[in-house]
Structures are given as C-alpha cells and as structure tokens.
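Lecture 7 notes: from sequence to structure.

We start with a single chain of 464 residues. Read the sequence below before looking at the structure.
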Amino acid sequence: MDDDEPLEPETKDETESLPAQHSSDETLYCEAEPLSTVEKEKPARESSETDLEIEDTEKFFTTGQKELYLEACKLVGAVPVSYFIRNMEESYMNLNHHGLGPKGTKAIAIALVSNTAVTKLELEDNCIMEQGVLSLVEMLQENYYLQEMNISNNNLGLEGAKIISEFLQRDSSSISNLELSGNNLKDEAAELLSQALSTNYRIKKLDLSYNQFSDTGGEHLGQMLGINVGLTSLDLSWNQFHVRGTVALCNGLRLDLSMNGFGNEGALALGEVLRLNGSLTYLDISSNDVSNEGASRISRGLEYNENLKVLKLFLNPIDVDGAVLLILSIKRNPKSRMEELDISNVLVTEQFVKTLDGVYAVHPQLNVVYKAMQGLSVKKTLFLWTNPMKLIQNYADQQNITVVDFLKSLNPAGTMKMHVGEFRKAMVQQNKVPLNRYQVGELIKRLDEKTGMVNFSFLNTPKT
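Now the structure, written as tokens:
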C-alpha cells in the first residue's frame, strides 16, 4: 500500500551512517543533523508549531517536523511511514494497523513531542508493546496538544498496564479520551488502573472493552468510580462480569456493560442498584441474556430511579410483555428522567403502542426504540416519516423567519444547543408545527451531536 511504502535513503553513504539504535527507556530526545546554518547573532525562530530548535556550542540549527521524524527513524532504526509525514499538520492521525512495533512507535513519539497540530492519535493493532507505551507516555508529558489516544489491540498486558497506571497517577498530560480495548488486561491490571484513576480527573472517557476482567476487577473499578469525579464514560463491554462485579460497577455516570452475559440474576442486582443509585445516568446492558423475568426486576428499580436517562436492552430475549413492564414502571415514577429506552429487537403490538402513548403523556421527553408494530401498513409508515424539516421550513417561510429562529424559540436559554430530552419534550409539546414522535425522532437524528445534545447552528443561514 502506498501509504506504508518505506522512504528509501537518497545515497548509500546516508544508509551506512545510521547511528546506533537507542534503547526504548531513553528519554524522547532527538538531535537532528544540521540542514542549514544560521549566524549565531541571528535570532532563533520563535514558532514551535513547525520547527524544533537544537543548540550547538557554536551555531544554531533548525529542522522541520518532517526532517525531525526522518532523523528519529534513523536513530531508532525504524522504517519511516509516508502517511505520517503527509499528515503531520492534521488534527487527526490514523496509524492503525501500520505494523509500527516499539521502534516505529518511538520514532512517532519523538516527532510528536513538539507537534502542535495532532489532537487525536490512533495506534490500534501495532504491536507497540511495553517499550512503545513507555515512549508514548514520555511524549505525553511534553505534548499538551494531544487529547485523544487509541492504543487498543496491542497486547499490552500487565506490564503495559503498569506503565499506563504510573503515567495516569502523575496526571500531567492533556489526554481526556483513552482507548485500551483488547489488550489482554486482567484483574491485576484493573486494580492498577483503578488506583491511578482514583486521583486522575483528566480522563473523561475510558474504553476497557474486550479485556478479561472478572468480578474482582469489577469491584476494583467500582470502588474507583465511587471516588473519581472526572470520568463520564466507561466502556466495559465484552468482559466477564457477573452479579458481584456488575453491582460494584454501578456507581458510575455512564456505563457500558453489554456482552457480559450476567443474565436474570445480574438483572435482579441491577434492579436494586437502580432503586438506590443516585449517579448512574447511562446504562447499556445489551446482549446479557436478560429475559422477561430480568426485565421485571429491572422495572422495579425504574419505579424509584430519578437519575437514569438512557437504558439499552437491545439483543436480550425480552418480548412485548417484558417491554410493557418496563414502560409502565417509568409511567408510575413521576420523577423519572428517562429519555431513551432501547428495546429495538422487540416486535410490539398495537396495544403496546397505545399504552406507550399514555406513558409519553406523562414523560414527553421519553423515546422508546422498538423493532416495529405488528400490522403497520406501508401507507401509515410513509406518513409517520414525512420529512419534519420540510414542515418546519414551510412554517418558517410563512412566518418570514428562519428555521433556526423557530428552533431557538423552543429553548428557554435562546441558544443553538439543547439537551436531547429537553428538545424532544419541547418539539412534542409545541403546536406551531404539528409533528408526531417519529418525525421528532428523525429530526433529532439529524441534529444530534452524539453527546446528548442537539445542535442546530449549522442551519443558521441568512434568510434572503
């Protein structure tokens, strides 16, 4: 592939003059060969965005980002990656599946020490090992521009977890989103990471899916969630949690426990957690072998819960009877803040839809996602999905206003962003542009930022 072709040295002499390889535990520092000389009296460049300045005893030498990276490759004995060179000034750097290894990772890290452009770095499946992780964390202590890093599927294991945990304890970088999926992390690694995150509040999103945590690891992470005030999203799908680990984890704000197979026994524990928990706002327990029995137990917790906003139960063996129990429990709770219930594999009946309309009357912010209604005609389906934006545009044209003017009028704050639940409630309750819930849902899909907020600023075009 062209992106990964090695950059051949220009001359034989250059190849033969490669410096000796440096060990991976050295600090990330690279002294480039002189490309041009400047008189000592001449002021050095002040910009750090594209140049790395290196001082000699007699003269100053400067090198660009590309040259710095090529020199780093020589120093560590790595083959340069042409894609990296071409995209050094972009904010998003995707180096997934490039076969970098520890040496290639170190060369990348050296180049990124002084890089101010890249804010998101993808290094999934590169066999970076512990040496590569060490290079990356050393770089992150100098680079305050990188905010998101993905080092999933690198088989880091316990040694890699130790390096990352020590780095997190220092709490000295700008990284807020860290992906560690599929790294053969076990309960001992969970304990180390939990200790580090008990004092690190910079990490907002952490992906630990596809690892090998059991209930013991869940207890460590659960204790951390009770202390940590910074973490807002934790993905623990595809691990090995059962009842004990599930209960321990439910102190978090946003929790993904899908694909863990804890069954109805775990659902019973979750029902109790939902009844008592005051901080959990997002819970994904998709594909956990929860049947109608488990749905009944969860519904008991929903009758009392005042904080949960999103509950995902997709791909569980729940039928319409279990679905009715869930929505009625929300209806019976006047303080429920539920905004989304995902039972999208359940084929519902007309009676369910009528019952749901009664729930919507009490909780207009709620959206229940189900598979379909039995016997729904094609004609009715087309009616339900009439373009809502077109209807709003027609109303705006009649009133000689913009679409944004109309949408902003629904927001008490008068801004162009609203929380999804508040927006849905406002759209359902307004009577200027009659829209059914299906149309409101379609509108939200168009405006949703995938952060729990809708944003209609991109519609802000002047009316001619």
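The two ends are 49 Å apart (CA to CA). Keep this in mind for problem set 3.
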